[in-house]
Amino acid sequence: MAGHSKWKQIKHYKAATDAKRGALFTKLIREITVAARSGGGDPNGNARLRTAVENARAASMPKENIERAIKKGTGELEGVDYQELLYEGYGPGGVALMIQTLTDNPTRTVADVRFKLSRGGGTLGNANSVSWMFDRKGQIVFDAAGKDEDTVMEAALDAGAEDVVREDQSFVVTTDPASMHAVKQAMAAKGMNATEASIGWIPKNTVSVEGEAAEKLLKLLEELDDMEDVQKVDANFDMDLSKFAAT
């Protein structure tokens, strides 16, 4: 298992200096709305909604924003009909990209994604052009401070997790997508509260990038991540993160 997304780690380091709270709230609200629309407005009976609400709370989103997003999803309030679309492609250095979006205008979104990729030294691929390089998994992130690795490993595996990796100041627990929330709740019952949980595309193997290709790749990833319609970008690259950790 390749472990946690390097792009997610880089975003974590950058967040200390340039957090984009408004853009994050927009993405969280869309996820809550779609989750409520697809599985109902009760978080207790809708695992996807429960995870989305917990992530929103972890980001300090006001309660009224969360409730309004749920009501838009269930139809109690007028809302936008978002579609879930997945785009595949390549970035600089031959890095494979999986781009998850929620959009009310697919024509606009695919044009915007194609433009960003083309301008950033990448290309938009066809369906299944790179997805075979990834596994669809749930990942739960825990702050490593004050936690013993063996204890976390034992709790995670007992709860049904597939893998646990220590990455910098976090433990990343990987699960089958359907088991993610159950694992998260079982570990919470043992006093281990997650800082983040999401389902994404985990690379089976990674491509090492450095120098100019790495700089272009990071710029492209940041531009994609800044797009309002893009919920998540996963990529199969590896690079030295020491310069980010030091800032």
3D structure, described in words:
This protein has 247 residues and is of the alpha+beta class. The protein has three domains: 6-74, Integrase, N-terminal zinc-binding domain (Arc Repressor Mutant, subunit A); 83-132 and 204-238, Alpha-Beta Plaits; 134-203, Alpha-Beta Plaits. The chain has helices at 6-18, 21-39, 47-58, 63-74, 106-119, 149-159, 180-188, 211-226, 242-245; strands at residues 83-91, 95-103, 123-124, 134-143, 163-167, 170-175, 196-203, 207-208, 230-235, 237-238. A four-stranded antiparallel sheet has the order 3-1-2-9. Strand 5 (163-167) and strand 6 (170-175) form a beta hairpin. The radius of gyration is 18 Å and the shape is globular.
Shape: globular
Q: Kindly state the mean pLDDT as a whole number?
A: 89
Give the CATH level 1 class of the largest domain: Alpha Beta
Care to count the β-strands?
10
Number of domains: 3
